[in-house]
Amino acid sequence: MQNSYTPESTAVSQDGHLRFLDGLRAVAAVFVVIHHQQQPLPTGDKPLLLQLLYRFFFHGHYAVDLFIVLSGFCLMLPALRNNNQLVSNSPLLFFRKRAQRILPPYFLAMALSLLLISTVIGQKTGTRWDASIPVLPFDLFTHVLMIHDIFTSTAPKINGVFWSIAVEWRIYLVFPLLLLLWRRLGGFTTTLLTTTLSLLVWHVLSVMQLPDINLTQWGLCPHYLGLFTMGMMAAYIAYSPSPLCAVIQKKTPWLLLTTVFGVSILLATRFDTLLPWVYTDVLVGLGSVCLLVALKTGRFGRLKAWLSWQPLVLIGTFSYSIYLIHMPILQVIQQYLIFPLNLDALGTTLYLLFIGTALVICLSYLFYLLAERPFIPKKKTTYQQVSSISVS
């Protein structure tokens, strides 16, 4: 009997778009939303369900790691069609297109956050949102220049998730250089070199202990350049016409490696005092690489089909909007819907999990229609375009 979970039939839309990538974005975005819903565990007896939810969604940072790897993966796909060069062969045109795609929703989300702060959520209430207020002129200045992640005092202000937008924006600025290194040194050397140097930068800054320089999990994150390059490598292995990549793709036990890295991440999280957190991020990056290649090669057929499920794909298409505005929405929900009900910790968690998540997704879709979709380029890189790459 024919397998209903064929590698590409359920994962590629009629226009060839890789739907499982949107599914992964949706999972990562919803994970971050639920992570930011979690409240500190109450003292005394703790309901088992509350403990499980808190522990499972505690490391929302790992979802951001996945976003960075996915970003490298997706930006590398068009370059593979052009001999590892920018499609336009113009860094300035690439920067302009990235700015058009990323910056308008970011600034509109900032305006929305500031409006809500000035009207309904400008007072501290003991939630995660407290770190975002008050907003000082320097906070606004650094956010406009997208350097707010550099400073501990400014990174969480206005909207606590904006730090990663600044990190990713700087990575875009060096993407043409990464492609140049890719052509000169090769993909594997470039990935190893970039990852090593980015970790070295983090260690040097840690030793220097510069005042107010933000080296936390929601800060500068120089090692994200390495994770981004890992995403490029995943695309290279999965779709490059190189004979070496074909052998690696076929012979490597991707399913086993994904499992091994998954277990390693759990162990590193459990014994986090023994290993700097940036190395756990590297494990997440490597695990994401293995997962992406495994999905492409059909090793996770059922998972790939589930990630290609249309409702999940739809959520993934506006995951950027979900990420941008979910925190102020959650604060409005807590402050004006939950607090008046005087719910206990478990009741608050369940309310946010089901009603809060649904409201965030619905309102984020409206934001997407108004503030994101108008700036999305019409033409997408398709699976057929990528898979038809031939050796020149």
Describe the structure using short key phrases.
392 residues; mainly alpha; globular; disordered N terminus; disordered C terminus; membrane; Acyltransferase; transmembrane; acyltransferase activity, transferring groups other than amino-acyl groups; transmembrane helix
Q: Into how many domains do the coordinates divide?
A: 1
**Class derived from helix and strand content:** mainly alpha
For the largest beta-sheet, the strand count, sense and barrel status come to: none
Please report the total strand number as a whole number: 0
Protein name: Acyltransferase
Transmembrane segments: 56-80, 101-121, 161-181, 188-205, 225-247, 254-271, 277-295, 307-330, 350-371
Organism: Spirosoma agri
GO molecular function, one term: acyltransferase activity, transferring groups other than amino-acyl groups
Description:
It contains 16 helices and no strands. The radius of gyration is 21 Å and the shape is globular. With 392 residues, it is mainly alpha-helical. The two termini are 39 Å apart.
Write the layout of secondary structure elements.
Layout: H1 19-37, H2 48-56, H3 61-80, H4 91-119, H5 137-145, H6 163-185, H7 187-208, H8 224-239, H9 243-251, H10 254-270, H11 277-296, H12 301-307, H13 310-317, H14 319-338, H15 345-372, H16 383-387
